[in-house]
Amino acid sequence: MAHTITDECINCAACEDSCPVNAISEQGDKRVIAADTCIDCGACVDTCPVNAIHA
Question: CA 13 to CA 45: how far, in whole Å?
Answer without folding.
Answer: 12
